[in-house]
Amino acid sequence: MRGREVLPDTSSRTKRGISEILRPYGLRMTLGNRKKHPKGSVKIGIDLGATRIKMGLVDKRGRVSHRRQINTPVNAKKKNVIDSLVENIDGIISEAGIARKNVAGIGMGVPGPTDFKKGIVRYFPNIKGWENTPLKSILEKRLGLKVNIDNDVNAMTLGEYVFGAGRGAGNVVCLTLGTGVGGGLILNGGIYRGSTMAAGEIGHIPINESGPRCNCRGMACIESYIGNRYILNRIKKIFGRAITLEELTRLAKKGNKAAKRIWEDVGTKLGIALTGVVNLLNPDIVVVGGGVSNAGELILGPARLELKKRAMKDQAEHVKLVRARLGEDAGIIGASLLVN
Ligand SMILES: [Zn+2]
Fold first, then answer.
1. Domain residue spans in the chain?
2. DSSP 127
3. Could you report the per-residue pLDDT of 265-299, keeping only the tens digit for each?
4. What are the residues facing 70 on neighbouring strands?
5. What's the CATH number for 169-324?
6. How far is CA 72 from CA 47, 87, 139, 180, 317, in A?
7. Identical topology for domains 2-157+330-336 and 169-324
8. Considering the domain 2-157+330-336 in this protein, what is its CATH number?
9. 270 alpha carbon to ligand 1 midpoint, in Å?
10. Residue-level pLDDT at 31
11. How far apart are the CA of 93 and the centre of ligand 1, in A?
């Protein structure tokens, strides 16, 4: 029947929908395929951070168990980090009492630019010594399991898309607000990586002609205005002392005007940067995660207002701006989706 030859509905969470998500990765869908993966088959998701490594078993519904958290040693040698990864992965498998053959594979989000296809870490901005590390093949050899690696924001974006706030949407922009401002893109139902797998750097969209120099070699990047460090500096200037972001949020919620104004300014600047993103990509939803996003509506409210004022009508009316939903487990769940 001709009428059936339509594009697959990537917005639904059907088996077909998920396989569309995974296709850009060159991966096949096996979720729910009981013949290939017997009941109880699981994956291991790992979130390798510059300060912490989090990992756990993830089932096909995105539920996490057997969590482990390890501090990434300061100035850790690459070899030690890899040894620790192997040891803890083996630990999780034996602790869970599952047969190795029932582990579908290991997905890992890493803190820096990564060649997903080749499984090579390009470099980590905050950990020395990882330049051009073929991490996928190193781990596969040592573990005898399938391993896929990608940068942590792409992993989180996948997690929010499949199991979190982006569920049911076809075009999703994901942001992480922290020390840096990261971004990930799901376009037409798949991760958009760009020509050299470097797309999604929303944090380095300039919002002024001139302004602070950025590590990326740019100037006046949005990250320099709404990143963690900027907010903390601003707090010091205004309050005359150091206050944590949690405290700032508490103060703002209690009605402290100066605290409210700081968050409002962050939200407004975020809204300005997002206006460009929303006009360009016309997404269904923008999902905001990361530590700074705990300020919630204090930031999202002003950002929405700015979008409403500035973005083009069609795009502005359609787009939703929401907080990420997977919380602490986002990195683990997202990373597990890199495997199948
Ligand atoms: Zn920059």
1. 2-157+330-336, 169-324
2. B
3. 999 999 999 999 999 999 999 999 998 999 999 99
4. 53
5. 3.30.420.40
6. 11, 14, 17, 18, 43
7. yes
8. 3.30.420.40
9. 14
10. 41
11. 40
